[in-house]
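Thread: Newbie trying to understand structure tokens

Hi all, I'm a second-year student working on a class project, and my supervisor (Dr. K.) asked me to get a predicted structure for one chain before our next meeting. I've only ever worked with sequences, so writing a 3D structure as a token string is new to me. If someone could post the tokens and maybe explain what I'm looking at, I'd be very grateful. Here's the chain:
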Amino acid sequence: MKLLFISAVIAVFAAAPGAVASSSSGIDTYDSEPSSASFDVYPQDSASSEDGLMDSKDEPVDNSVNSNVFATKKKRRPTQSPTPMPTLTPFDQGREAGRDEADRLWRNAGNSCSSAWGSFQKSVNRQIRTKGWNRGGNGNWRKRAFNKGASAGMKEVVVEKEKECFRDSADECVDLGNAAAREIAYSHCGSMGMTSSKKWRRNCRDAAVDQCKGQLFNQVKDECGSPRTSTLRTLQNKCWNKVLTMIGDRSEDYDYSEDLFSES
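---
Reply by user tm_fold:
Sure, no problem. This is what the structure looks like when written as tokens:
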């Protein structure tokens, strides 16, 4: 058994490189201790020297699998073109034209609810006739449909403005009531004791004439002595024409107070 073991060991050492055999004895020996078993180590590729995980820069790595994964995530273009917007019918085209025209008239009226009481409606009806939108179209069904749509569009705006002014808000109603109350109060209070401005002028004129007659005697006496009775009467008769001449004969002018304070 020992011989067999020794023979096996010798065989292993004999196979090791760098060993030098000695033949001085009947048993093969070695000048030096056998070196430890070595393994051929091949140098790593320069591109894979970092942790052995990076791929070579000189040789691109096939990432076809990853490429396919990313490709599936890209947004694909639609295979069909978007559905076009439907073309408006002649009626709808006319309706848009009518609404635009009514909105223009409303802006020209000052966007004021006071015009919604009647003037705006009249403007709309007049414009429908002017545009010919009240006619049938002379046998052309497209023209007839357009005219009906235009007329309907304008009337829609009228209804919308009336709803906005008379139903959705009470501002127009309150303002109208306040204005009416103010005019009534002014007419009532302003006319108290002021029934006729023409009468005032007439009374003042007559008083001036009477004053003229009463002052003539003293005026003549101070100027040239006491006048005779017949002379005084003659001079007093001149007071009427003299007063009228001095005031420009405006005592019978138009009575503005009658118009100013009259209730209509």
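A couple of things are worth pointing out once you decode it. Residues 73 and 182 are 76 Å apart (CA to CA). Confidence is low (pLDDT under 50) at residues 18-58. Feel free to ask follow-ups in this thread.
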